[in-house]
């Protein structure tokens, strides 16, 4: 089982400098490869990442673009993994794009990475570094001090070095033997989880789990600091005599205060991301530990983000990260994750008699069923409906046509997608194998934490 551990590095000035240059190299090589890919595709060719890498290797020590002011190839100072990995990352990104398109999902073509805007990281192959307790020996920089020792034992598959709000991290991917990675479950319940707007999560047993409180205070501070920061930007614009939008390529003079403010903002965002991640970890661990099956909605998160009012709430809950953690942890605990089709009307069905409430509006927190007079809390009712998808109880009670799809071993058979939904069992191919470490997929929904 592939698991990752992301460990903070105590960097020296020289190491920080090298890391920044190596990450910058990885970004430039990615951009070069993507530009070549696009050029070839535009000419009707079929680009190939490995052929691009070969082409790059031919020019990387001679092309003027890759030489420094003295005419020397600066790439020689950077370990080759940092400039070789972007090619396989690009191949992977395109493969994912075509797969998603074929599956009829929303897909985005790989994009160019912008300095200061994109995640900064570079890769290290497993034979290029070694871990020794609380330190690691990396190519070009030698020994670096780590804040923790590696949590997993197993075969080390690779690592990436990345930056978050001024701090550097080493994310080590380890292939942990299954018997070591497995954890004992403490319960065999089946729980439906409604990821909500007012509570972070509502469980089918009626429990409402609120987002962590420090988050609220931090979010308030975030608003204040972002406002301050944008005022500084406005001031800089006014000083430069710019009205309206800043033209492309224009560089505003950067004051010390603005730099300081930007760093403070980044730190706060990183803290918020950490608090959130910690909360999500605890919740997902608990769900996988106590349940043989957890049912969640397969939300169209992108679609909901487009809806301004809900956007904030959904971003806060970090649904993608929640689902990602559930998926890999369910393997460790032997729990099953069941996805309800996003069209399954979990909120609108009465969990007692199955009557559908077509009038239910987004703002209705509670409602009374017209069929059986039951008074429902919106979120609890939705969570119960989700739970029943896995147990089949909904089908038994409401005599709706049963789906042929069987649930996995252990749980009850006969899923009943009332209202024309479909249920999918999450497969476990999305571990943490990507080079960027634990927060891989979180970036899309959680706040930008860099
Ligand atoms: Zn009812």
TrEMBL record:
Probable transposase IS891/IS1136/IS1341 domain segment(s): 172-305
Domain Transposase putative helix-turn-helix: 1-43
Record carries keyword Hydrolase: no
Entry-linked InterPro entries: Cas12f1-like_TNB, Transposase, Transposase_put_HTH
Residue ranges annotated for the Cas12f1-like TNB domain, each copy included: 319-386
Chain intervals for the UniProt region annotation (Disordered): 430-450
Keywords: DNA recombination, DNA-binding, Metal-binding, Transposition, Zinc
Family assignment from sequence similarity: In the C-terminal section; belongs to the transposase 35 family.
Protein name: Transposase
